[in-house]
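As promised in the previous annual report, we have extended the structural survey to additional targets. Below is the entry for N-myc downstream regulated.
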Amino acid sequence: MSSPPIHPNLQQRRESFARRAESLIERKYAISTDKSGELIITVQGDLTQQEKRAVFLTVHDLGCNHASFQDFVNSPCMTEIKERSCFIHVDVPGHADNSGALSDNFAFPSLQTLGEDLVTVLDYLHVKYVIGLGEGAGANVLARFGLKHPSRCLGLILINCTGSAATVLETFKTKFISWKGDEVGQGAEDFLLYHKFGHQLVGDNPDKEKIVQDFQSRLHSTLNSKNVKQYVKTFMTRKDLPLKNCKVDILLITGMLSPYSTVVEKLHKDTDKEKVTMMKIERAGDVLADAPAKVAQSILLFCKGQGLLTSVVMPGVDRQRAFSTSSGGSNGEPRRLSRGMSMEEYDKPNIRRLSITVNDQLPPIQSKK
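The corresponding structure token record, generated without further manual editing, is:
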């Protein structure tokens, strides 16, 4: 005798609990690369479920480590995305929490070398495709990864990405940053605060003091000053980024108060607008701290355009309405999600979007009537 059918609402709740449990899984790996030395990797989510998930590869900015993206992923506005995704967070050499100083004979890799070596991480973890999510120097690294390995990259979300080499003035200023032995001097700290938050730090954010204090605490306690200096020097000796040659879709994000907003605008101006979209967020310097909900919404829209996270509902959209497709049936009515298709199957990435020749329009956002 067959068992009675499970009520759809009960089935959805079970799947929701399962996704939530999977999203809480966290593992760390030490992965040796060809030219970049050992990279410490933190994985959020269950990679054994990657066929049903969006997989993000993150690289952090100067003066921080993977915790900056981990904090963002753990924020409430990212809950729906987090439960349907896996995140592979990369710590560049010597930037894991409480790392010792890199050896004096260790040649810190260039941004180009770091980007090219990231494919080793994917191979080690048996990951086929990723969405790149990077900030500042990390965005530059991921852009170079996308240029070198477009077949492994479904798209790039780049926050405050710089496309040009460091200017003479920029290089001249950083030569006078004070790095006092094993401590970050005031000049170095001021540079990193400016690089991260801009002239007005975090704008109108009421938590700006706490955010800055947390940044300073992490900079002085969990990060090795000598290694931080190496990443800064690598960033300052970066080469031009030929992003107009990129074959994958790109979302550029910057804040109006970011010191790199004009640099991002120039980068966008020189790219193929069929592939590259730019978003500027008002009253924001550090967009991950100032406007996490706007960043999360932009990530979701971008991923939907790549055939990912299709079951995640945009804010203000009726969940039942969201599962109606734009194509109708023979009678002109919208076609509903099949009863035989679970939420997990609906979330399964549409790898046909890997034919990265046409940038399909993002699906329209329907509002309640």
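DSSP finds 14 helices and ten strands in the chain. The beta strands are 26-32, 38-44, 54-59, 85-91, 130-135, 153-159, 179-180, 183-184, 250-255, 276-281. These points will be discussed at the next consortium meeting with the crystallography subgroup.
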